[in-house]
Amino acid sequence: MSASLPYVLILYYSRHGATRAMAERLAAGVESLRGVEARLRTVPPVSATCEAVDPEIPDEGAVYATLDDLRHCAGLAIGSPTRFGNMAAPLKHFLDGTSELWLGGALIDKPATAFTSTSSLHGGQEATLLTMLVPLLHHGMVYAGLPYSETELMETTSGGTPYGASHLAGKRSDLPLDEHERSLAYAQGRRLARLALALSTLRESDS
Asked: For the Flavodoxin-like domain, which residue ranges apply (predicted)?
């Protein structure tokens, strides 16, 4: 990764791999544009037992996010499986710890988006995405969903919403992303990257 290029942070929690697969598609969309890179980061699970600890580096996949990953990003995508129409606790726990960035206005006017995966078709995809945007708005970020110029929104029979990409993982959470879900996640990443570059220029001209 080049230190000189702006990056879009793709921050996710994935239990069975579906949300991680979506994050990788968003990353591909981000990196389809020149002049910007994707940075994949995850968060550790949380435990009700305070003595439980995980290694500082995960056994596989993306490394754990830090506040500096957020502080210096040009754009942000957050992804989570659905938990009763809301994001999973590990991602919420991480976002709850970003008050330092909120106090300093570090994320103001940066573009952001969200994506999710559910086991059932009506398992809370849209509710989860809508609740995920709330902390982003508190940070002063500019939310970017998926416009209907992405025709897959009218064709999909599984995941895909104007609030962000989504995926139907099935009751065993083992269904792969289908063609429409893959396309929409890619488009979402590409749009976020385009906005990140544009808004970065605007922020620089205001400073």
From this structure: 8-192
